[in-house]
Amino acid sequence: MFQTLVKAFKIKEVRRKIFITLALLLVYRIGCYIPVPGIGTGLLTDENLESFTYLQIMSAVSGGALQYGTLFAMGIGPYINASIIIQLLTVGIPALERLSKQGEEGRKKIATITRYVTVLLAIAQSIGIIIGFSGNIEWNNLFGENLKWLGYIALVIIYTAGASLTMWLGERITDYGVSNGISMLIFIGIICTLGNSVIGIFTGEAPQAAWTIVVFLVATVLIFAAVVTVNDAERKIPVQYAKQVKGRRMYGGQSTHIPIKVNSSGVMPLIFAFAILSFPDLIINLVGVSSDNWYSRNMGTGSWLNIVVMCLLILFFAYFYNAIQFKPEDISRSIQQNGGFIPGTRPGKPTTDYLKRVSNRIVLFGAIYLAIVALVPTIVFRAIDASLQMAFSATGLLIIVSVALEFNQALESQIMMKNYKGFLK
Hints:
By secondary structure, the protein is mainly α. Helices cover 72% and strands 6% of the residues.
């Protein structure tokens, strides 16, 4: 990673893209500190964040901007949700499926639809949070108590504009910077939340802080090593292509492989599982229902029923995403059309069945891995220090690792492209 950064800074074009990325990330972080009229000490209190897992995730991703109700309080959350919704609808709606297969033009149209859905979700999300936590809003600083409805409209417009600007910054990083801009915004938000938690450890009592830091560093290294190892693990299925004579030349005859990653779906099953389990609790509390209800008692964070249901949801969404991304029939057809075969397996339906069987087994191990990652880090860091529970959650760990690896691969590809251009010149 460090060697890649050193090589990247030696190349003018890549160095310029890195500086553009850093500048846009700086603009995003500045927006996370711009106050909004009517929001005094903060939009959400510590008690609210401790009660709602969904708000904890949103606050962690936004780098704490949601807690203080600043301009970018919504962060990139509406865009992520919109992307997930469009991706799921692409499977069920034929029109969207046709657009996804139309190449660059189709992707542009889907991106435009995603932007519109992002704005709608930002409006709905800002309305829900403002109504649910209106007790922390200083209405007299806006338009007065008599025109509270006008204050609602103003705050919704401000937060929707902030979410739209965040989406624009992410797209600009993707176009002119390095790596995926949306991932980088999520990454920097979680890193900032983590930094605040680590600073909290150093400002604690000296005897407690000393052993806490040591245990924290050891646990961090071990967990990150385990996450990186499994995140890069893959099963390579060998493919042999037969020799073909065309005219006076001979083609084929080479060996290759089909890589199937253990964690091909990434963090998506975790996000879906957390969102589904946390969203009912959020709605219950927003509408004013007492916290002493059946769902909070039996399905609250840390309960055994919550753990079991979350593991089942992770397993379900892991298989669901694998069914969307991995198409054994298409792969088998492509191998057969190009004169290839898997050693020991006949072309056609036997190859399809073999790929399905291998894929299902790997997805099972990937789902078990995600379930372990969802539970172990949270429990470990909660035992070390309660303030680290959300900063080093399962979702945060996977996002940090995935984005760091993605950024390193993007830099390596930029360096390789520059070397190819220099060779051609």
